[in-house]
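Sequence in, structure out.
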Amino acid sequence: MKVTLWGTRGSLAAAGPETVRYGGNTACVAMEGADGSFLVFDAGTGIRRLGVAVRADVPRIDLLLSHLHMDHIQGLGFFQPLYREGQEVHIWGPSSTTLDLRARLSRYLSPPLFPVRLRELPCRLTLHDVPLAPFTIGGLTIRATLVCHPGPTVGYRVAGDGVSLAFLPDHEPALGIRFIPATDWIS
């Protein structure tokens, strides 16, 4: 399992000498499994650079959104694989009792906020509500759970290739809650 941090800041992207060490982009982490699975966690401003770097021969990209606050989706419209005709892209996000994921993302990816509508993207796009039961992508097992943060918001635990990692970018820890047993890496 290979993990690359493309964005690690919270709330606001920032560029300058004080951000050189850890970077100035908001949340975006890529994970490549040994079987070729390609997962992306959150679509902050770091996803733009990832989109430039990702190889065109990656057959499927799975983007797992923790929640839909602006700092976690503001790079989505600039992710180049979305504009590759035929590229298979799956976007996973927490379910809501009011609107489905497509309707919520369409609010951002449409005029006047963005010139390209979600429905106009040339990739082969599939949207999924994240199940709260374990599910698999390739050889990886993913568990999502609701976390304490305005949202809905989920955290992820991914296991495969003999290791596990957790991605919980925004959460307010609560007493008595246990989600991440023995992971090798946690964000």
